[in-house]
Structures are given as structure tokens and as C-alpha cells.
UniProtKB/TrEMBL annotation, chain A:
Highest taxon above the source species: Bacteria
Stated name of the protein: DUF3823 domain-containing protein
InterPro entries given in the database record: DUF3823_C (IPR041186), DUF3823_N (IPR024278)
Origin organism lineage: Bacteria, Pseudomonadati, Bacteroidota, Flavobacteriia, Flavobacteriales
Domain DUF3823: 30-121, 125-226
From TrEMBL, chain B:
Domain RagB/SusD: 290-626
UniProt keyword annotations, A-Z: Cell outer membrane, Membrane, Signal
Compartment(s): Cell outer membrane
Species of origin: Leeuwenhoekiella aestuarii
Signal peptide start and end residues: none
Segments crossing the lipid bilayer: none
Name by which UniProt lists this protein: Putative outer membrane starch-binding protein
């Protein structure tokens, strides 16, 4: 046995020994839920909207970003503990409710084991009863909208668009659509159609309507629908 | 016998330790004390040189990609394709927060003030330079981060355990701009009015900075109104609209002081008869160049050189097997007007859809603004006396294309015998790095000197931070915003006639789009485009995340909010059809390089860079930037 071999052996021993002693357990609690208005989820674009969790009490306060899924749901794995949840100004087609004067819109939550929570927010508009149909290379879509915020903070609709993509991620982000067309915005209803890109060779397509609210960056969407061609 | 030596040594040992109590108390040989450092003008200058050297540039020749961002060019380097394959920018991009630099500038000014050995006029000049650099860095900060804490003296921690007295809130964005403008006024008198002082602060540099800063502040005040969400209630981001005219006034006055020759005889560079060569020379001719006002200078064989030419020279036949990285995009190239001042897309097809044939590859680019060939190396032109070999393939009579996948590849064409070259040695070959993948190379800032393309020599071309043409265009924009379109037209025409455009603009021609366009083509690859997009609040429209297509790219040239989310190319092909009159001619096609898959989107949260979480943790008084 040369010294080198002892070195390898002791290195090996160290590798196995070091795992257990100094590490934390991994976070084990799922924190899941949805962003809703009156129980209805608010649909957004993929990886467009996020909120932040802060966990005070461990020195430097760094936010944990939680992104919303397209159907307004979220899911993350965290350590048990007490957190503060904060919606970011200008993120999402909605406003957060003020909890009370002192607390602002910060929500205190506690995670103990798997936790499921829905959070009520106040959207500028809501979309419902969306309908899509495909005939030939034309995709037709429509949806009804209702204005939710009607006081001084009310905002108009800048445009409504019908987006199509070949995956279930459909949004105004250029990576997430194959094409789009402007829809006609009438009172309480948007409708119109778009055409498939040339040489589209799949036998299905995903369609979705997005509404851009004036001065709000993130679009409000209706649920994605898969259409057979 | 030998042991006597030890006895002899004892008195020496004892004696040496005790006799000289200051034995260890010596002047350091590698550190200058404060008195020494600030005791002679030469050493103060070298302290100052360190501060000059740390000047922050957004774009610089030391980092070629920094000059070619936001899809004005494609980057022909395999490791960088990712820039064109993602959908946007991080909130933290372009951020800067170097308060260490500010502290050292503050220390420099404080120590300089204490020095008694310096001549008062030297001292005043050094102090003015230090304040110029400090104001320049605050300008950098406010452009990228919005209002920041304004620290004008060095601060020291007292180890009391409570650091709150070191925490300062952010000033308003307007307050930082006001600080820069006031500093400019305060230091102006102490600096020389010397056209040949270019790498140190001069009166011209200060006024040029003042004009630019005031113009930026004015446009943020005016155009910020169109994006109310990009502002903070405390004014840390956003400037009240009511202040716009006052800032534009300051900008116009400062720029006119330079134009009227109050601070030295600056003028447009007009030394060469060939206008394209003339335009390119602005950026490398360092002898008696009346246009450059403030530069970062380099020197061969001094260690301070850069490799911009190595990175971007036409690779075929270059001095090093390297180059070709910046490939200007069609959107930029087609923006150069015709000589009679018209926007015109390149004619690639006739109205009936047939290709348009050109006898030589350069013909399609003839009759355009001379800045085109001064900024871009087009197919058929040459660099360092060697023609570039840019053509994408051979088009046969039936419309099919024969091309290769290595530079200058040879193949046999139908109806001919033997191998012939079917693609240029400079490409374009889709996806092959260092070839001209858009069909163009960059010319601006390339060094025509022999050896500039060699790694052992490199280039000493300077980087111009302020030049006279920008002063003119700043004055034009301020005049336009102040409702003096005739004055604006006069300044624009100076810049345009230098570029060979023969039709003068009149007062009625001056629109916002005109101003935007002129800056886009004049300052391409100079690092100013980004801040123009931001201060006019059009970045989120130009970079809206929507892919572009070949049919719409040629429309609305000269429109301020024309989409530019992807770089496109214009590829020349040789026509092969023996017996046909067009045989051997060139035709052009608009293509999107296939490595371009993403479309850039600039979000509201990108207008001002994110302030790092570590900074927010250390100082709870700092508020976050909007929309992040």
C-alpha cells in the first residue's frame, strides 16, 4: 500500500462521512394554491406573473419568487415557518386587496406541512365563457368580459388578441405563440378569428384569448383550449 | 578555537538590538503617503488616471458585444447565439452600484483639498477633473438605476454597531440630473478650453456632458408621461412633465456654447473626399481630429490596447484566423437614406415577384447615405485593401440554390465541368460562426492599420464618448422640443450633408421620427441607442416580443417605434444561367439567420435596472424600482 492509496481511502471516507452531519433537511412542505377572484382563477401567461415570499427571522431578508402557472395556480416547496406574501406592484392584471392600513397588502401566512391556499385579488377585468372553433385554417374565438374595477382606478381595454400555439403554453410572449390576430372588442364581448401559419402540419392547435389592459403589462387570459383540426 | 567566534558575536548581537530604537521604523518603499501622493502634480495625475480608467461605459470597444446590442446586429459567435434565442432581458441587467468608486473619488477630492504643495491652478484643474468623473458616474447611475443616494463625502463606519447613520435614501431622478448640471457649471471655469485635450476633461467635455444629461432629463420628463407606470411616487423614477422645457433649454444652451466655439474650435470631421472613408476616419484618425471631444484613448505597445478589430475584422485573409463577430442587421442597413433623403427598402424583387439583378454586389447599396459604407462593410466593398467575399450561394435558372457549408466551398454546377466556388469565403453560411451571417460586417471602430488584427499587436483606436455630431443632434432635438424646428433643421442638415445627403430638411420636415432616425443611423454601434430607447419610452414598443417577418421588415422605415426584435440579413446570390443576359449577376434575398429563434421583449421593469437584494437588505431606506 502506497501513501496514495491511503489518501484515496480517506477521501472516500470523507465523502461518505460529510453527507450527514452538516446539511439541513431539504424543504418538505408543498405550498400550493391559486390566485382567484370570487373563487374563479385568474389566467395569466406562462412565467409572466410572480409574487414574493419573505421569511423573517433568519438574518438577511431575501424574497422567494413564486411564479404563477398559466391557470393562476402556483406550487412551491418550502420549509415550515411563517412567511409574508407580497404581490409586486405592476405584476399581473389585478390589484392586491389592502388587508388593513398598517399591514398594507402584505398577507401573513404560515406553512406547516403541505398547505393549500387560494388568494383573492381584484382583477381589472374577468373573462368567461370563452369559445373556440376551427374550420379549415381559420380559428375562431370569442369570450365575454366583465369589468371588475369600475372606480377611479378603472382601466380601458387596449386590445384583445387570439393567440395560437402548438403547445399548451400560449401567450403574448413570442416564444409561446405561432401567430395571433386582433379581436373585435364590443361591449362585454370580444370575438374574431385568426389563421394557421403556412405549412402547419400537426392535427391539433391550442388557442387562447388575451386581453391587454391599458397601462398593465401582463395580459389577462381565458383558459387554453385544445382544438382538433 | 572556533568557539571564540561566538563570544565575539555576543556584543554585536546585544549592540544591534538596543542601540537603534528606530531600527524597524522605516519609510515604506512601496506605498506613497498621502503627503507624498498629493505633493507633486505628476503623482496626483497618476492617481487621477486610475479614476479615469474606471469610467463606466455602456458600450466600449473593449467589449465588442456591448456596442451591438438590441438587435442592431447579429453576433456571429457560437457561444453567443443564446442572446438571440431568449425572449427578453433580466430585471437586473445593466445594473451598476459602484459606491466604492464614488468613495474613492470623494477621498481624492478631500485629500486634494488638504494638499498645500500644489500650485493653485493645478489643484483647481485636478479637482474639476475629479468632480467631472464623479458627475459622469452619477450620470451613469441615474441612466440605469434612476435616482440614487447622493454621497458627496467619504463616510467612515465608527464600529458602534449601529450603521443607520450611513444609510441614505434615494434622491429623486430629477435631483441627480440637477446635481450633474450644477456640477458642470461649477467646474467649467477650472478646465482648459483645448480641442486637443481629449482623454482628459476639458470645457468641451463638460458642456457635452451637460447637454446630454439635460436632454436625457428633458425627454424623460416629456415622454415619461406616456408610461405613467414607469415611475415611483417618491420621484426616484420619473421626472414631472412640467420640468421638460427647462431641461431642454439647458441642453440647447450648453450645446450651442460648443457649436458657437466658446470652448474651443470643435467642428465636424471633414478631411477626406470620399465621404464614407471620411465617416469611418472619425473613429480612428487621432491627429487633429476636430470632432472628438472626450475619448478613452489607447496606445500601442503600452499595454493599453484593445482587440475590437481582431474580433470583428472580415475573417477571410485576415491577419489572424479570427473576426467577423458583429454582423449589422438589415433593419439598420436599410435605414440609411438615399442621397436625396428618401427612406427606401432595398429592391430585391420587382413588383411581379421576379428577382432584381445587380451587376456587381455593391450596386444595390449605391446612392445611399455615405454613413452606410462608413458604418458597415457591405458585400463587394473592402477592408484594408482586401475585398470581402460575401455571397451566400449560386441560384440556378430554375430557382434552386447551390451553396456550401464551409467557407469558399467548391462544387460542380449542372452543365459545367470542374468544381467552382459556390459560396463566399466570408459566408454567409447559416450557423457558421465568424462568417457574415447577415451578409454584413461592421466597419465603425475597425482599425485599418497593419497589425491591428494581430493578437500580438492589437489596436489603439480610441473610443469616442462625446463627439461634435452628437452635440449637433442634441441641440437639434432640444430645439425641436422647444418648438424651434428651423433651428433643429439647421443642425440636422450639417450632419446630413457631411454624409452626402443632398436634399436639405426644412422646418416642416422635422418630426420626432426624424430625430429618432437621425440618431439611430449616426450613432449606430456607439452605445447611445439603448439610452435613446429608454428615455423616449419607446423601448417596450420597439422590443415588444413579437417576431418579425421578411414581408413587414421593409415597411415603415424611419418610424420611431418600428419593431426591432430580431436581426435579419440580406444575402447576395450569384445567378448562374449561361447564355442568359443576367448570368453572373447578383440577386438579393431577405433572410432571418436560423440561429435567431427568440424575439426580444423589453418590459416596463427593464426601464430601470433592479437594485440588488443585498443593497436593499443593507439599507431599508432604498425603494425598489417599479414593475419588478
Amino acid at each position: 500500500m502506497k501513501i496514495r492509496h491511503y489518501l484515496y481511502l480517506s477521501a472516500l471516507a470523507l465523502i461518505f462521512a460529510s453527507c450527514e452531519i452538516d446539511n439541513y433537511d431539504e424543504p418538505e412542505s408543498f405550498f400550493t394554491g391559486r390566485i382567484v377572484y370570487n373563487g374563479e382563477p385568474i389566467e395569466v401567461g406562462a412565467r409572466e406573473v410572480r409574487f414574493q415570499l419573505f421569511q423573517p427571522g433568519f438574518g438577511n431578508l431575501a424574497p422567494l419568487d413564486v411564479h404563477l402557472d398559466t391557470d393562476g395556480s402556483f406550487s412551491g416547496r418550502f420549509f415550515d415557518g411563517d412567511y409574508k406574501l407580497k404581490f409586486l406592484n405592476g405584476q399581473g392584471p389585478f390589484k392586491a386587496y389592502e388587508v388593513n392600513e398598517q399591514q398594507g397588502d402584505t398577507i401573513f401566512i404560515s406553512i406547516r406541512g403541505n398547505t393549500e391556499m387560494d388568494f383573492e385579488v381584484l382583477p381589472y377585468y374577468m373573462l368567461n365563457s370563452s369559445q373556440f372553433s376551427a374550420s379549415g385554417s381559420t380559428i375562431t374565438g370569442s369570450a365575454n368580459y366583465t369589468q371588475v374595477i369600475t372606480d377611479a382606478d378603472a382601466r380601458t381595454i387596449e386590445f384583445a388578441r387570439l393567440y395560437i400555439n402548438d403547445t399548451q403554453f400560449v401567450s403574448n410572449n413570442g416564444d409561446y405563440n405561432l401567430g395571433f390576430s386582433d379581436l373585435e372588442v364590443n361591449t362585454g364581448r370580444v370575438s374574431g378569428n385568426t389563421t394557421l401559419p403556412d405549412n402547419y402540419d400537426k392535427d391539433y392547435i391550442f388557442a387562447r384569448i388575451g386581453v391587454k389592459i391599458d397601462g398593465v403589462e401582463d395580459l389577462l387570459f381565458c383558459p387554453v383550449q385544445k382544438l382538433d383540426l | 578555537m572556533k568557539k571564540y567566534i561566538y563570544f565575539l558575536m555576543i556584543p554585536f548581537l546585544l549592540g544591534s538590538c538596543t542601540s537603534d530604537s528606530e531600527f524597524l521604523d522605516r519609510e515604506p518603499t512601496n506605498i506613497l503617503t498621502q503627503d507624498q501622493a498629493f505633493g507633486s502634480p505628476d503623482i496626483v495625475l497618476s492617481v487621477l488616471a486610475n479614476l479615469y480608467n474606471r469610467y463606466y461605459d455602456f458600450g466600449t470597444v473593449e467589449d465588442w458585444s456591448s456596442l451591438a446590442q438590441f438587435n442592431v446586429a447579429f453576433w456571429s459567435e457560437a457561444g453567443r447565439y443564446g442572446y438571440f434565442q431568449n425572449g427578453g432581458y433580466g430585471y437586473g441587467d445593466w445594473g451598476t452600484w459602484d459606491y466604492g468608486y464614488i468613495r474613492e473619488m470623494n477621498l481624492f477630492l478631500e485629500r486634494l483639498e488638504l494638499s498645500e504643495a500644489l500650485d493653485p491652478s493645478d489643484k483647481a484643474r485636478f479637482a474639476a477633473e475629479g468632480r467631472f468623473l464623479r458627475a459622469s458616474y452619477y450620470f451613469t447611475l441615474v441612466k440605469r438605476m434612476g435616482g440614487v443616494p447622493l454621497i458627496l463625502e467619504s463616510e467612515t463606519y465608527d464600529f458602534s454597531g449601529d450603521a443607520t447613520y450611513l444609510q441614505h435614501p434615494r434622491e429623486t431622478e430629477a435631483a441627480i440630473y440637477d446635481f450633474i448640471l450644477n456640477e458642470a457649471d461649477a467646474i467649467l471655469a477650472d478646465l482648459p478650453a483645448d480641442v486637443n485635450t481629449k482623454s482628459r476633461a476639458s470645457k468641451g467635455a463638460v458642456l457635452a456632458m451637460k447637454a446630454r444629461a439635460a436632454l436625457y432629463a428633458g425627454s424623460i420628463a416629456k415622454y415619461g408621461a406616456s408610461t405613467p407606470q414607469v415611475s415611483l411616487p417618491g420621484g426616484e423614477v420619473g421626472i414631472p412633465t412640467s420640468k421638460a422645457d427647462a431641461y431642454y433649454d439647458i441642453a440647447l444652451t450648453a450645446a450651442q456654447a460648443i457649436i458657437n466655439g466658446d470652448v474651443g474650435n470643435y467642428s465636424l470631421y471633414e478631411k477626406k473626399p470620399d465621404l464614407s472613408d471620411n465617416f469611418a476616419s472619425i473613429f480612428y484618425d487621432k491627429s487633429n481630429n476636430p470632432e472628438a471631444i472626450f475619448v478613452e484613448d489607447y496606445k500601442l505597445q503600452s499595454g493599453k490596447v484593445h482587440s475590437f478589430t481582431i474580433a470583428n475584422q472580415p475573417r477571410f485573409g485576415a491577419e489572424e484566423e479570427e473576426g467577423g463577430r458583429i454582423n449589422p442587421a438589415l433593419s439598420l442597413v436599410q435605414s440609411f437614406e438615399t442621397l436625396d433623403g428618401q427612406y427606401k427598402a432595398f429592391e430585391t424583387t420587382t413588383t411581379s415577384g421576379d428577382p432584381v439583378f445587380y451587376e456587381s454586389p455593391q450596386d444595390i447599396f449605391d446612392g445611399r447615405d455615405a454613413r452606410l459604407k462608413g458604418t458597415v462593410i457591405v458585400p463587394g466593398s473592402s477592408f484594408k485593401g482586401r475585398p470581402v467575399d460575401i455571397w451566400a450561394g449560386v441560384q440556378l435558372a430554375d430557382g434552386s440554390i447551390v451553396s456550401g457549408d464551409s467557407r469558399g466551398q467548391e462544387k460542380e454546377l449542372p452543365g459545367s465541368t470542374g468544381q467552382v466556388q459556390v459560396v463566399g469565403f466570408d459566408g454567409p453560411i447559416d450557423g457558421l460562426e465568424f462568417t457574415a451571417q447577415t451578409g454584413f460586417y461592421i466597419r465603425k471602430y475597425q482599425d485599418p492599420k497593419a497589425g491591428s488584427g494581430q493578437r500580438g499587436t492589437q489596436s489603439d483606436v480610441w473610443f469616442i464618448r462625446y463627439r461634435y455630431a452628437e452635440v449637433l443632434l442634441n441641440a437639434a432635438e432640444a430645439a425641436f422640443e422647444l418648438d424651434q424646428p428651423a433651428v433643429a433643421a439647421g443642425y440636422l442638415n450639417q450632419v446630413r450633408s457631411r454624409a452626402g445627403i443632398m436634399t436639405d430638411l426644412t422646418a416642416t420636415d422635422i418630426t420626432f421620427d426624424r430625430i429618432v432616425h437621425e440618431r439611430f443611423v449616426e450613432f449606430a454601434f456607439e452605445g447611445l441607442h439603448f439610452f435613446d430607447l429608454k428615455r423616449w419610452r419607446i423601448a417596450h414598443q420597439v422590443l415588444d416580443g413579437t417576431p418579425m417577418d421578411a414581408s413587414t421588415i421593409t415597411q415603415n422605415i424611419g418610424d420611431a417605434t418600428k419593431r426591432l426584435t430580431q436581426p435579419f440579413g440580406l444575402w447576395p446570390y450569384k445567378y448562374y444561367n449561361p447564355g442568359d443576359p443576367n448570368d453572373g449577376d447578383y440577386l438579393y434575398k431577405i433572410v432571418k439567420p436560423n440561429r435567431v429563434t427568440g424575439a426580444d421583449r423589453f418590459q416596463f421593469g427593464n426601464y430601470y435596472s433592479e437594485i440588488g437584494q443585498d443593497i436593499l437588505n443593507n439599507n431599508p431606506l432604498i425603494v425598489r424600482n417599479p414593475n419588478q
